[in-house]
Amino acid sequence: MKKEITYREAVRIAIDTAMEKDERVFLAGEDVGRYGGSYAVSMGLLEKYGSERIVDTPLCESGFTGMGIGAAMNGMRPIVEIMTCNFSLLALDQIVNNAAHLLHMSGGQFNVPLVIRMATGAGKQLAAQHSHSFEGWYAHIPGIKVLTPATVQDAHDMVGLALDDPDPVLIFENALLYNRKGPFDSAAKPLPIGKAKVMREGNNLSIFAYGINLFKALDAAEELAKEGIEAEVVDLRSLRPLDDETIVASVAKTHRVLIVDEGWRSGSISAEIMARINEKAFYELDAPMARVCTEEVPIPYPRHLEEAAIPSAEKVAAAVRTLMKEA
Amino acid sequence: MSLTIKEAKKLYRDMLLIRRFEEKAAELYTEEKIRGFLHLYIGEEAVATGIMATLKPEDGVVATYREHGHALVKGIEPQKVMAELYGKIDGCSRGRGGSMHLFDKEKNFYGGYAIVGGGLPLAVGIALADKRLGRERVTVCFFGDGAVAEGEFHESLNLAALWNLPVLFVCENNLYGMGTRLELAESEPDIAKKAESYRIESHRVDGMDVLKVHEAARKALSHVRSGKGPVFLECQTYRFRAHSMFDAELYRSKEEVEEWKKKDPLLVFRKRSEELEIWEKIGADAIEKEVEKIIADAVDFAEKSGWEPVDELTKYVYSEEVPS
């Protein structure tokens, strides 16, 4: 059935559907139950499924993430919610040293079918300990998959895809997207993990983005079209694995590249994408690649400084104009 | 203390198996057949042996990087453990884990973990899954005194007690976290007392006496199996060898080590079984011969096993079958 719903509702429907379908699925995290989820994603699910399946945990990211790994190793299908990716650093040992490495270290014996969802991104004046984007860091690590749903449809579909996956999958939900409405088709066949999607066709340059920055890129593309610049906008969707094929095909079509990434520039996922294009499509390029990233500062509290720090449609448009002037 | 000859034999045999296996491993290490880190369990055999003797095959075990003993007495074939130490393809983790990462899914051995404290949350999750899926199983989680300083120790005890999970926590208190004595690492060095603060039934056990460990484990397991929640055992023990093969042991005196060697679990067992008048019936010589052959076979197996082909390097990073 097709309708307009919010990103938040899409995630909730996906969790609800998965829990109805499979007794082994449970949701655990801080305030997911009685509070209704810190972003209200799990509102109402406790009443439906009870506290054994909607599990309020104490404040112990490492403990409950590791619990999720153990439960996944032993036959369950846990969804662990970490309130923000900033807090996930407390669980980094469990995510990296255990979840990501267990299959390999055990010689293929123990897979970890765990889903970890976390909020990511800046824009709510939450200052430097609640506003960062670490999805690019996680994409560095073999053994896990990193998904960054931008659309309402993906916010829904990726939960199911992640649960069906035998390996640990991290889903980064930009906190500013939860209220955003978009089209949702409950009967649509999900686009698999690891596939990027061309969201707007164009011939003049390719803009690669993910998460909330997809919409900034699309807004910029609309503005640029008025100036006669037709940008192709690609939603990366998955940062690990990256869809090299779609990226290279787009570069081969447009010959110019801009990447929008809410991570810091140094050592970012945008740096990785540039390196891959350099390796695989260097002779397709008509100009040096460009990117819009977050300024290299911890995100500040005041609105004007926060806005100045992170990517925006204006910054994207400006970067495109500069790029188009290059030979 | 009620103990059948059969049980006594098994306890002695398992302790001796660990001892001889590790003596051989140390030798092979100096020959550079085994590389990486090698953490020997010699001196602590009574703990793994006494606990594991009370387990059923379906019970789960989570261990540390000093886990050869746990793996052997949980029933992983010595040949597969030795091949793993060699890094060979027939090792219990296909040679990919090495000494610190022994795994065997069939034996419900959930692995050796080389980040101190890192295995504790996993044990909580394994036990939670058993409880939710209605399985009559217990998960035993081994860790050292060093883990007590890690946040995960406290997080995991809290969760296990809060959710009343079937976990047996076994702290192998050998007095040193690598080279730092417990008193220098803990404001409250009484570990069982810490566990009690989480409302977990906790006991302190002489970890050099396999019969005492066995008895304590039997009681603890019956508590856990009856659904009354986790139990914590602090087994007071000592490692006779260095922390790893790279350790010059500057942090403790030879006298202290010699003093503890008087409590060698093999000697203690002999003395206790003489008191119980069962020593003669154990057949120590026959056990020694049996173990000797097992070790020789294990080394032979490891020597003959092959190396994993390099073109399989990237295998098992992700599962091969992903539903479409």
Distance between the termini of chain B: 58 Å
Fraction of residues in H or I helices of chain B: 40-55%
Overall number of strands of chain B: 8
CATH architectural category of chain B: 3-Layer(aba) Sandwich
Write down the domain tally of chain B.
1
Most strands sheet of chain A = 7 strands, mixed
Most extensive protein-chain contact, per-chain counts = A-B, 45 and 47 residues
Tell me the strand order in the biggest sheet of chain B: 2-1-3-4-8-7
Number of helices of chain B: 13
Q: What would the principal axes of the Cα set say about the shape of chain A? A: globular
The radius of gyration computed from the alpha-carbon positions of chain A, rounded to a whole number of angstroms, is: 20 Å
SSE order of chain A in H/E notation? Answer: EHEHEHEHHEHEHEEEEHEEHEHEHH
Placed side by side, the strands forming the largest sheet of chain A appear as 3-2-4-5-7-6-12
Mean pLDDT of chain A: 97
Approximate shape of chain B: globular
**How far from one another are the termini of chain A?**
48 Å
**Strand runs of chain A, count:** 14
Strand content of chain B: 5-15%
Mean pLDDT of chain B: 96
Using the CA coordinates, give the radius of gyration of chain B: 19 Å
EC number (chain B): 1.2.4.1
Keywords (chain B): Membrane, Oxidoreductase, Pyruvate, Thiamine pyrophosphate, Transmembrane, Transmembrane helix
InterPro entries (chain B): DH_E1 (IPR001017), PDH_E1_Alpha_Subunit (IPR050642), Pyrv_DH_E1_asu_subgrp-y (IPR017597), THDP-binding (IPR029061)
Catalytic activity (chain B): N(6)-[(R)-lipoyl]-L-lysyl-[protein] + pyruvate + H(+) = N(6)-[(R)-S(8)-acetyldihydrolipoyl]-L-lysyl-[protein] + CO2
